[in-house]
């Protein structure tokens, strides 16, 4: 992250009985993310007229498959690793998700050059607004084609990880 101005967005949980979130820039809805059911691992993200399905598959070696809702084509696959994982696009691009702080729900996406692109911070207390996303200064929201997908998938992974840990404790 650069020390200069950041572009900040806020994740808001819309309903405490459902896993439905909206990413907002002020009052403007930018992205929506909705799980199919409260206990499920499948979710739909929608932004700027595009929709993706996120499906967690596998038991011992889980991965998240990202499909285009329009074509059904697999767009990318996220494979988790220690403290994060790697998202590989079918067209060859890749991003790495890393834990920014091991004891706090904070993650960041880096590009293939290792530069930070997005930072997520979650606040999962009962009355919390949910969290936020900071986009690095030199990138605008529309400057990378995958920005909406990275933001929504990152939040999907953070919420899913938090829920997995809550089941263990």
- Average pLDDT level: 79
Count of individual beta strands: 12
Biggest pleated sheet:
12 strands, antiparallel, barrel
Number of distinct helices: 1
The neighbouring-strand order within the major sheet is 1-2-3-4-5-6-7-8-9-10-11-12
- The CA-CA distance between the termini, in Å, is 33 Å
Indicate the radius of gyration in whole angstroms: 15 Å
Structural class: mainly beta
What is the H/E string?
EEEEEEEEEEEEH
Low-pLDDT windows of residues: 1-5, 165-169
Q: How many structural domains?
A: 1
Shape: globular
CATH class: Mainly Beta
Structural summary, described in words:
The protein is mainly beta and 169 residues long. It has one domain: Porin (Beta Barrel). It is 13% helix and 49% strand. It contains one helix and twelve strands; from the N terminus they run ββββββββββββα. It has one helix at 147-168; strands at 7-13, 20-25, 28-35, 42-47, 50-57, 63-68, 74-81, 84-89, 94-101, 106-110, 116-123, 130-135. A hairpin with a 5-residue loop joins strand 5 and strand 6. The chain is globular.
